[in-house]
Amino acid sequence: MTFLAQLGAAERLNQSLLCVGLDPDPAKFPLHWRGDTNKIFDFCASIVDATADLVIAFKPQIAYFAAHRAEDQLERLVAHMRQTAPQVPVILDAKRGDIGNTAEQYAIEAFERYGADAVTLSPFMGWDSVQPYLKYHGKGAFLLCRTSNPGGDDLQSQRLADLPGQPALFEHIAALANGPWNLNGQLGLVVGATYPAEIDRVRALAPALPLLIPGVGAQGGDAAATVRAGWRGNAEHTQAPIIVNSSRAVIYADSSPDFAKAARAEALKTRDLLQACRVLAA
């Protein structure tokens, strides 16, 4: 099953647009595990088990594992997801961006070592930094386009004077992903929930590409505006998928031994909010 097919199946089965981001910081763990890097797998696996029937995807952020020499725990975690939540695709949030043989090695890391279904990429080194990932047919790749951080304005909103219409850089990336770069229909785009007007513009340029949208929850993105700007479809069919990510608000909802129960409650609340917004947008 291709990543896009997995995504559609998970959306229908779990009635969800919510992606739970797994950013394990031992300094924020429940009090009984606080500071223990050996508990990264246990913490994340507990979140996965508590929310697997509520999400469209999981998104582990590789830096939170690598910083604590916990790559082996990330491998175990993806294997655990495959066993306990095979219906939910895994997006490895790596934001890789390199060329040639190096990009090929990063692709091996994402798709063979960790077994991810999709990966996030920085496209700023051009087509040859993206192409090695697309050799893995059926896998997905999300290009950073209009990110949720304030510093995104430094580059992404700058106008390209030598192109017709002088598009902003993020608009040019969206057009490339929707057109000449998307050889096998594997590309998607990362756009921040904190910029709903830009989500709407990206959707106009890439009407059917999946959008990975961080920024709802702790970063303050508006759920209704996000769904209205990015989701397209009707009551029976999604024509343009969106994957709305919430990380800290879900996984750190509580610091007691019942943290997984609290994470489930927060995920359920966010899932239902997004679904209500989807019904209004249909």
Secondary structure elements and their pairing?
Elements: H1 3-14, E1 18-22, H2 40-51, E2 57-60, H3 62-66, H4 71-84, E3 91-96, H5 100-113, E4 118-121, H6 131-134, E5 140-146, H7 169-178, E6 187-191, H8 196-205, E7 211-213, H9 223-230, E8 232-233, E9 238-240, E10 242-246, H10 248-251, H11 259-281
Parallel strand pairs: 1-2, 1-10, 3-4, 4-5, 5-6, 6-7, 7-10
Antiparallel strand pairs: 8-9
Task: Please tag this protein with its features.
11 helices, alpha/beta, eight-stranded parallel beta sheet, TIM Barrel, 282 residues
A few lines on this structure:
The chain has 282 residues and is an alpha/beta fold.
Please tell me the total number of domains. Answer: 1
Instruction: Output the number of helix runs.
Output: 11
- Span of the ends, CA to CA: 27 Å
Q: Write down the Rg.
A: 18 Å
- SSE class: alpha/beta
Give the beta-strand count: 10
Q: Percent helix among the residues?
A: 40-55%
Let me know the average pLDDT.
Answer: 94
Low-confidence stretches: none
The outline comes out as globular
